[in-house]
Design a protein that fits this description.
There is one protein chain. By secondary structure, this protein is mainly alpha-helical. The protein has two domains: about 190 residues, Cytochrome Bc1 Complex, Chain D, domain 2 (Orthogonal Bundle), CATH 1.10.760.10; about 120 residues, Cytochrome Bc1 Complex, Chain D, domain 2, CATH 1.10.760. Helices cover about 35% and strands about 0% of the residues. The chain is built from 14 helices and two strands. Strands 1-2 form a two-stranded antiparallel ribbon. α11 crosses α14. Bound molecules: heme C (2 copies).
């Protein structure tokens, strides 16, 4: 009898333990509120990158002094990024148009927002945004900083369509936020300034540094002959307008979209209506489709070998000689970091 009690207590204890650890990760439904499932120990968002990436960061980092990344801040940012309740119809989150599996891009030319309305430009990959030294965001750089950018899609009528007052009311009403704001900012005050800061911390933590290109730069791998020739082409071909002069290694990003761009799109003239556009990081470009500000270029292959029926004309500075196409593609494919598209810390925490 005693034995039985001991065993059943043990069974109860063990299953209780299991229940506890499970309830850490299991979805919790409370009325209509969908709660995020977070790890009991926060993920690590404060990372020391390999030397070549760290050097670029030191030179270009747009992180403001009052908003450094913390693990709790980025965790809150992750929840906000994927929370559909930040939209008018509760169906759209930042992650709807910046999808992890597509390197935080949306592989369609124009993205759908609330009520299925379409954006006027192609979504941008949120990758390595903290390496954009000038800090300006959007294809036309109309947001001065990442923090200022973060509240714009929320207020945009096509994208998420809330006023800042509505946003604050909604976030304040959700039971899981006070504790997250407390951890991130030291008090339970919830306002749009903190929402923008947390979103920015999460976005700045999305950095690619585990591609073949990175392993080669650390001396841990070597390029194939085709990849090596592609790199030379990227760095040197058609000087002074080499690819690298506008898409600067190692993050393949620049703060100088200075040259007037191709007459690709008479309807959209970009920065100051000067036919200039920002380009985000070219990292993971080999996995992305619908390229450029209007999404009209199908993929890298189509960019490098333009023409064909219905295809847009070649874009100046963006084609290479026929015999170089395969090498250029081989090189650009070494920029793909597959960890970013699968890592749990960047994934949707909502069940
Ligand atoms: C309905 C689709 C949609 C939603 C929802 C959306 N975005 Fe975007 N995002 C876009 C499009 C389209 C662009 C480019 C717009 C432009 O340049 O005019 C963009 C651009 C950006 C950029 C600029 C990147 C760069 O390199 O300049 C950032 C950062 C960004 N979005 C973050 C967010 C955040 C944070 C949210 C949620 C608060 C969000 N987005 C919600 C479609 C969306
Ligand atoms: C004069 C500066 C300049 C040069 C030189 C240049 N680019 Fe670009 N690139 C840009 C700008 C600006 C954009 C964004 C333009 C737009 O969307 O309208 C862009 C866009 C791209 C894109 C699409 C990015 C996206 O997110 O959709 C790819 C891919 C690309 N460039 C690759 C290259 C390659 C490869 C070369 C060399 C063969 C090259 N670029 C040369 C400035 C340049």
């Amino acid at each position: 009898m005693k034995k039985l009690i001991i065993i059943s207590t043990l069974v109860f204890f063990v299953s209780g333990l299991q229940f506890c650890s499970k309830s850490d990760t299991a979805p919790v439904a409370d009325g209509t509120e969908l709660k995020p499932v977070l790890p009991s120990t926060v993920f690590d968002y404060v990372v020391t990158y390999p030397a070549h990436v760290q050097a670029a960061l030191t030179a270009n980092d747009n992180t403001p002094a009052d908003n450094p990344i913390t693990n709790d801040g980025a965790t809150l940012g992750r929840v906000l990024f994927y929370d559909k309740q930040l939209s008018k119809d509760n169906k759209v989150s930042c992650g709807s148009c910046h999808k992890q599996q597509f390197s935080f891009d949306d592989n369609v030319a124009l993205s759908a927002g609330v009520d299925g309305g379409l954006t006027t430009r192609n979504s941008m990959a949120i990758l390595n945004v903290r390496f954009y030294k000038g800090g300006k965001m959007f294809w036309d750089e109309r947001a001065a900083t990442l923090e200022k950018q973060a509240l714009q899609p929320i207020q945009n009528h096509v994208e998420m369509d809330l006023t800042l007052a509505q946003l604050e009311t909604k976030v304040n009403a959700l039971s899981y936020y006070p504790a997250l704001f407390q951890k991130a900012f030291g008090s339970t005050l919830i306002d749009s300034v903190r929402i923008a800061k947390a979103l920015s911390q999460f976005e700045r933590s999305i950095v690619t540094y585990q591609s073949k290109y990175d392993r080669v730069k650390q001396g841990l791998a070597t390029f194939t002959a085709a990849e090596a020739q592609g790199e030379q082409l990227f760095l040197n071909a058609a000087a002074p307008n080499t690819c690298a002069s506008c898409h600067t290694p190692p993050m393949f990003i620049t703060s100088m979209p200075n040259a007037p761009f191709a007459l690709l799109d008479a309807a959209d003239l970009g920065i100051n209506n000067e036919n200039r556009f920002k380009s985000g990081s070219l990292r993971n470009i080999g996995t992305r489709t619908k390229l450029f500000h209007n999404g009209r270029i199908e993929n890298l292959q189509a960019m490098l070998t333009p023409g064909g029926p219905g295809a847009p004309p070649p874009i100046p500075n963006h084609t290479v000689a026929q015999q170089d196409v395969q090498n250029m593609l081989a090189f650009l494919n070494t920029l793909t970091d597959n960890t970013i598209t699968t890592e749990a810390k960047f994934s949707n925490p909502f069940p």
